[in-house]
Structures are given as C-alpha cells and as structure tokens.
Amino acid sequence: MKRFIPLIIVILAAAWVGSSWPAPHWNAGDFDLPGFGKIPVLVSGRVKPLDTVARNSLLIIHGKQDVGLTNGGHVTGMQWLSEVLFNSSVADQHPLFVINNAEVLGLFGWEQGDRKYFSFAELSPFLKQIDEQGEQAEKLQSVQRSAFQNAIFNLRNALILYQRLKNSVQAEETTASVNELEIFEKALPVARAAAARQSTGNAWTKAQLETVARAAQRFETMSGLAYILPVPPAPGLTDQTQEWKSIPESLLHSIGTGSIDPVVRAYAQMGDSFRGGKTALFNQQVRDLSDLISREQPVATKRASFEFLFNRVEPFSHDMTLYVLVFLLACGSWLAWTQVLNRSAFYLLLLALAVHTFGMVARMYLQERPPVTNLYSSAIFIGWGTVVVGLILERIFRDGIGSACAGAIGFITLVIAHHLAGSGDTLEMLQAVLDTNIWLATHVVAITTGYAAMFLAGMLAIIYVVRGVFTRSLTRPVADAFGRMTYGVVCFATLFSFVGTVLGGIWADQSWGRFWGWDPKENGAVLIVLWCAITLHARWGGYIRQRGLMIMALFGNVITSFSWFGVNMLGVGLHSYGFMQKAFPWLVGFIISQLVLMAIASMPLERWRSFQKTASSTSKPLIISEPIPTAPN
Question: Based on the domain organization, do 111 and 162 belong to the same domain?
Fold first, then answer.
C-alpha cells in the first residue's frame, strides 16, 4: 500500500490545481460579470481584460482583490469594477481606502480605532486637504518622506485612481447614458454643419456654438480623467496600441465623423441595464460587445481571454501551497518512511514545477518578452531556476535535500513575488533600462540564474547548519552529500554570474557607450562573482573545508540579496527602478538571520548535536564530517 502513496498524493494535488481551470458558473438571473471581465481594454499601454483591471486596481487601492463589507459579506473584483463604472453612487459606500496612520486620521478629525477601511463617501469632504498634503509629499523622494507623508501620498494616489475609474466610461453623475447619447447624436449634424460653415468663413450661430461647446467641454473633462481606453482601433491600422481611445475621446472624434462608435453605444446600454437591474438585457449586451470586439480585434480578444484564464487559475498561488507540501514531505523523509516520503516529495515537486512553468510561460506569451522584465518576474524566475536545479540534485543524490531546498526557495520567492505584485500590474510596460530584447534574453536571464544558484547554495548551507547544530541527523554520508551539492552549485553560480555580468557590460557599451560605470547594480553583480571566486579558491587552497564552505555560502545569501534588492533601495544609479520602502526591514532582517547562522555555524564542533557523544558511547562522536582543522575553517 505504501508504494501507492506518492501516486495518490500527486493525483489529489493535481485535482486540486485543476479545479480552478473550469470556467466560473453564474446563474441565469445574475449579471454575466465573468463575460464582462473578458472584454479587452487598453490601460497603461497594455491591452488586458477588464478582470485584470479590476484586480490590479483593487490591489493598488485596497490591498486585496475583493472588498469586505461591514455586514460581513464581500464584493468580488468584477462586481466592484462594474459598480464603479456604471453605478458609482453604490461603489462610493464600500469601505475601500486603507488608512492606518493616526496623523492622517487626525487630519480629518477622526480617532484611531478598530477600523482601517473607509469609503469614498466618507473621504469626499476632505479631498482638497488630501490633495494638498499629498502634493507636498510627492515633491520629496521616498526615503525622505515621513510615515504620515507616505500614508497621505498613497491615499491621494488611490483616490485619484478611483476617480479616474469612475469617469472612464461615463460621467460619474450619469443616470441615463443612452438618453444622453441620443441627445448628443442629434446634435452631431448641427455640429458638422457649423464646422462646414466656419471652414468657408461663415460664423456659427449662438445656439449651435452652445450645443457643441457644452458637449465638447464635458468630454474634454472626462477625457483628462479617463483611466480605461475601451474603444479599439479600426481594423487594419498598423500602430493599434496608440489608436485605442477612451469613450470621451471617441465621442469628441464623432463630432468630426458624424457617427458614434458602436462600442461607445454598447457601454452606454450596459450602464443603463446594470443600474436598472436588467440582468438578461445586460448579459445579451455583453455578448454582443464581445462579438463585436472579437471581429475587429481577434488577437486582442484571444489574449484577453487567455489572461482571464491565467487570472482565474492563479498558478503561483497554487504553487506556494505545493512547495510547502514538498518541503514538509522532504523533511518528514528524514524522520520516517524515507523512501515513500522522498518519492512523494519528488513527484509533487515535478507537479509544482509544471504549474510554475505554465505560469512563467503564460506571462511570456502575454507580455511577448523573455521571462525576466522586472523585480516581480525576477522572483518568479529565480524560484523556477532553483526548483530545476533542486530536482537535478534530488535525482542524483535521492536523499530529500534537493527537494527540501527547492520547496523552501520556491515558496519564499513566490511570497516575495506576491508582495511585489501589490503595486499593481506585474505585466506593465518595461522600464527604459530593460526595454531591449537582447538585454532581457541574455544578461538578465543569466544573472538571475546566478542568483538562483547562489540562493540554492545558501539554502543547502542553512539546512546543513540547522541539522548539524540542533539535531543528530547529520550523519557523515549526509554531510558529505551536502558538501558535494553546495560545491557544485557554487561552481554553477560562478559561471552564470560571471557570464551575466560580462553580457551586461557588453549591452551597456552598446546602449550607454561604456562597458563599466561603477553603477551600484553593476557593483552588486561583480560582488557575487568575486565572492564565488573567493569561496572556490579558499576551498581549493585548503583554507576552508566542509563547514567553512557552508559558512561562506551563508554569506553568499547576504551578498546576493543585497545585489538583488539592496542596491535598488539606494535610490541612485541607472538601475534604481525597483525601490520598495516596505522591503527594507525584511532585507535587514534576512541579512541579520544569515549572520546569526554564520555565528552558530562557527561554534566548536563539539557543541553541534550531531557531533556530540551519545550516552552509550564515550569514544567517538556520532559523525566526523571533517577533522578539527589546523588551517582556518
């Protein structure tokens, strides 16, 4: 029976992951929000489904992808976005905006209590104060702002985004979109006739001028606020990304053409149906709009539908759970059922890698770029690379160590990526410093592969020290396996870190006119190469042995984390594009933890539990993975 346990575990895990693939069900009497969420729009230079717009906007504004209500219920992302677009008076009442700072609450005359979420309706009397304080904070760099300034700055940005969303498809006070559209459409012939008379030198009449001016002024105001561009370009245009329009822009354009775009008309009809609770009519209008856009923009529709699937599957969220299970199974194999749990961990790790690969390839397809384009994708790729190498190690040594390291690092990197995603769209337009395919395909991929290898070597060292100091499980064969794996991984890291650094210099020479400029990010990369070289030469020269190799691998974690995140936090240089103030305490805490582990590992071997004498033996320790050396260790 035991031999079937790995198969059962993998089947159950695969069924759990696969349960998110089927399309979401909705009752015939409900609004077809899943269908509405698939409709493509252009936001921030990228075509994406409305579902992605809802998720990213809520992450920026609310910090979550759904809204909890005061009565204990919750509003999904698409339900919230639909209310914001079509029925903003209802959306204004939802507790959406996060305020944790007592000084910000004091600015409004409120006392700090149990609540931290507030509605737009509650904040609307203080919009002017928020804007003034936020504008002052904006003039300062992130590192210069106080806690109050950071809080008011983030609140201001969230309110601006919310107001832009409210004015994306209609003016927020609108109650009858179709009726207003019909009135405007009737004025179009007058506007075109007036424009024709003006072009021949004849003056406009006062009534004609007022009719056109009122509409144009309103649409100009909306155009400046609109966040979403839902009107696709006409079929056949070459530069289609630049030709998507907001609804007010399309209406202004219709003054010249004399006709209203059918997409604009469809959104107006959906707005009236949504406010009126006419679900059947709304659902039919969603299908009609989807068919219309799919005919005109088949590629955009296909990508939006795939991204909607990607959002629903949430591969990286599933992977976090899988990696934790892999780690627990691998650790459990050191205590009991060694072969069964080892195989279970290995096969489950293969499943986790398949899910991870799907997520990474899906991002590459949606962005049409190599796997690493920003800090978020670097965390995804580092985790993926670590799992691949961990599987190779596990296949060679079959002792659970490779699986345990891969599971731990896979989970940690995905947690890092999850927190990096809080800033919004992780598939956004590239930073200028990265907007080159050659750069992404060579330097960044190579250097992040080096990061992955360094972290894997560091994780091997962590497990080595923890097992050796706090348990009796570090037998000599196990310790020797740790030593061989760590040494091989450091060699692997040296190669990719060196190649990635050289390729970065070549790209910099072609793009910036210099191979090396002592930029902080460049210095961080070369520090990894130097530390790898020092570690290997110290090992070859006999200055360190097994334990010394582990201690140096631990410090490799410090150098790699500083190169990956720390130099970005300096706020200087050509690569300071990923600053995150909230990450600084975590980075410091991680570095301190590695230094503490190094100090623990430096204790005399007699104090390691795996080296202590047993009660029944007074002659030899349990293991002697290395003699007490005379040379520096």
Answer: yes
User: Residue 572: what residue type?
Assistant: V
Same domain, 52 and 143: yes
Residue type, 564: W
Residue-by-residue DSSP string for 313-333:
H-HHHHHHHHHHHHHHHHHHT
Q: Could you tell me the residue range of the domain that residue 92 belongs to?
A: 48-166
Do 92 and 198 fall into the same domain?
no
In 10 A of CB 457, how many CB atoms?
A: 31
Residues 162 and 181 in one domain: no
Q: For residue 317, what are the contacts with CB-CB under 8 A and spacing of at least 6?
A: 418
What are residue 629's phi and psi, to 5 degrees? Answer: -80, 155
Mean pLDDT, the chain, whole residue set: 85
Type of residue at 496: F
Question: Amino acid identity, residue 480?
Answer: D
CA distance 500 to 409: 21
Cα separation, 21 vs 24, in Å, equals: 9
Residue 429 has pLDDT above 80, yes or no: no
pLDDT for the residue 3: 80
Asked if 123 and 238 sit in the same domain, the reply is: no
CB neighbours (10 Å) of residue 400? 26
What's the rounded Cα separation, in Å, for the pair 534 and 28?
67
Q: What is the pLDDT of residues 387-399, one digit of tens each?
A: 999 999 999 988 8
- Model confidence at 232, pLDDT cuts 50, 70, 90, reads very high
Cα-Cα-Cα-Cα dihedral sign, residues 57, 63, 68, 70: negative
Amino acid at 391: L
Q: Are 431 and 579 in contact (CB under 8 A)?
A: no
Place of tokens 């060699």: 491
What is the structure's pLDDT at 39? 96
Q: Would 220 be classed as within a structural domain?
A: yes
Are residues 159 and 97 part of one domain?
A: yes
User: Does residue 329 lie in a domain region?
Assistant: no
The candidate with the shortest Cα–Cα distance to 333, out of 405, 399, 390, 409, is 399
Decide if 200 is inside a domain. yes
Per DSSP, the three-state class of 49 is strand
Rg (C-alpha) for the chain, rounded Å, is: 30
270, 305, 340 — which closes off a domain?
A: 305
- The single-letter DSSP state of residue 180 is H
Q: Please indicate, yes or no, whether residues 154 and 193 belong to a single structural domain of this protein.
A: no
Integer Cα distance of 215 and 609 in angstroms: 81
Domain end (from 134, 166, 198): 166
Nearest Cα to Cα of residue 50 among 61, 32, 42, 38: 38
* Rounded Cα distance, 271 and 230, in Å: 14
Counted domains in the chain: 2
- Residue-wise pLDDT for 42-79, tens only, equals 998 889 999 999 999 999 999 888 898 877 788 999 99
* Residue 259, in any domain of the structure: yes
Instruction: Give the span between the Cα atoms of 355 and 14, in whole angstroms.
Output: 10
The predicted structure's pLDDT at residue 213? 67
Domain co-membership, 148 together with 212: no
